[in-house]
Amino acid sequence: MHRLLVPIALITLGLSAAAPLRAQSPGALPQGDGRDLAATACSQCHSLNVLMAGRDGPVGWKNHVYNMVLRGAQLTPREADTVIQYLVTNFGPGAPAATTVALPSGPGKELVETRCAVCHTLERVTVAKRQKGDWDHIVSRMYERWGVSAPDEAQTIAAYLAAQFGRN
Predict the structure, then answer these.
(1) CA of 39: how far to CAs of 28, 43, 72, 157, in Å?
(2) How does 41-65 read in b/e, with b if 16+ C-beta sit within 10 Å?
(3) Mapping DSSP to helix (H, G, I), strand (E, B) and coil, where does residue 166 land?
(4) Spatial distance between the Cα atoms of 62 and 87, rounded to a whole number of angstroms
(5) DSSP assignment letter at 155
(6) How many angstroms separate the CA atoms of 70 and 128, rounded?
């Protein structure tokens, strides 16, 4: 079957003769058309937790999938479309999160729970340790991405994230 690209990373590293990487079992992913494709293609380079932590819309998932194809993910255009639809359905905005994290109390907690959790799992927020300026930039970029202008709200979220998950 014709593929979009040859795995560039394998050629670059000279590993094309090495044993193929093993895909993770799709069992951790929700049932649905595209689950096996996503599990096989995506787990060649990273764990399936990366998929389960994401919350993006159709445009975002399309960008992610095609970026991965450019990096060597073995998907035909039709398979990529199937994977994108699977990801939007199961890991799109508003899709139920597999697990929940209790955030520490503080000003901005509720905004993080209601705004950030639309697109990201709260686990993704809690594991990132960033400097205040980085949080400011990330939150501002997310608001721009959604076309929303709410500088006071964005500032409150960034301050909360820096206070709770900041790095000196």
Answers:
(1) 9, 6, 15, 33
(2) bbbbeeebeebbbbbbbeebbbebb
(3) strand
(4) 9
(5) H
(6) 26
Q: What is the pLDDT of residue 145?
A: 76
47-52 mean pLDDT: 79
Indicate the length of the chain as a whole number: 168
pLDDT in tens, 88-146: 998 887 776 655 678 999 999 999 988 888 777 787 778 778 899 999 999 998 888 77
The predicted model gives 40-64 an average pLDDT of 83
Take residue 149 and report the two structure tokens written for it: 């202008």
Amino acid at 50: V
Position 4 scores a pLDDT of 41
Q: Which of 45, 7, 47 is nearest to 26 (CA)?
A: 47
What distance in Å separates the CA atoms of residue 134 and residue 63, rounded to the nearest whole number?
A: 23
Give the pLDDT mean for 76-83: 95
Compute the distance between CA of residue 70 and CA of residue 102 in angstroms, rounded to an integer.
37
pLDDT at residue 168 greater than cutoff 60: yes
Query: Does residue 134 contact residue 161 with C-beta atoms inside 8 Å?
Result: no
How far, in Å, CA of 97 to CA of 78, rounded?
27
